[in-house]
Amino acid sequence: MADLVTDSVLPMPLQNQRFAVLESLLERLNGLSKHTIIMLTDITPANALPFFADHFSLFADGWGFAVTESEQRELIKEAIEIHRYKGTPWAIKRVLKLLGYGDCELIERTGFLEHNSSIKHDSKHRYGVGGDWTHYKLITPRLMTVSDAERIRNLLIDVAPLRCKLVSISIPVNHNSVIKHDGTYNYDGVIKQWL
Asked: Of 48, 88, 120, 178, which alpha carbon lies 20 to 30 A from 164's?
């Protein structure tokens, strides 16, 4: 300990045994890789995860969707990348994938779609409206309820570019009696439209 005090970088009034211990701990902490510190989320107790979420500003970016502890930990690990690319299609797709919605498809610039045989005429698209270059649609492979669609819309307001507007969420639908027609799900494949 005496070596730490004489070789200290601390100002003279702080060069005593109490601060020497603190200084050695700080030197050890500075020596750790930043990736190692982030990876501590794997061993952090579950009741501390909301503090990590608050630190990374995740409460607006899907924390309420991360139901299981493993989903919460994955969201915390990806928080820096999501914030770095916030406002891009990649960020939208990544957040939804982390929350269990699979590989979603985005259809951007929906107002500029043309009748040129590049898009199937299946009533999922609006053609030639013009002026709607900021509108986009989300097609997800996973079944979701109407209330989940509202929650996802609110989530994407924080993740998508501010100028963009989600106009609909669609899912592939099989008419095999898996879903009930009680208002919880829409059976036509388009869960929700906001125009």
From this structure: 120
Measure the CA–CA gap between 56 and 41, rounded to whole angstroms: 12
Per DSSP, 85 falls in state T
- Taking only the tens of pLDDT, the chain with its 195 residues reads 444 455 666 677 667 777 777 778 878 877 776 665 556 778 888 888 888 888 887 876 678 778 888 888 888 888 888 888 888 999 999 988 888 888 888 888 766 666 666 666 555 555 555 557 788 888 888 878 888 888 888 888 888 888 888 888 887 766 666 666 666 666 556 665 665
For 22-54, give the DSSP string.
HHHHHHHHHTS-HHHHHGGGGTS-GGGHHHHHH
Q: How far is CA 165 from CA 78, 97, 134, 143, 162, in A?
A: 24, 20, 6, 22, 8
CA separation, residue 187 to residues 99, 145, 193 (Å): 23, 10, 14
Closest CA to 164 of 84, 61, 88: 88
Residue 164: closest CA among 101, 97, 82, 108: 108
Helices (H) and strands (E) in the chain, counts: 7, 4
Sheet of 105-108, strands arranged across: 105-108, 135-139, 165-170, 190-193
Say what the alpha-carbon torsion angle 90, 92, 94, 100 is, to the nearest 10 degrees. Answer: -150
Q: Which two three-digit tokens encode residue 14?
A: 């702080």
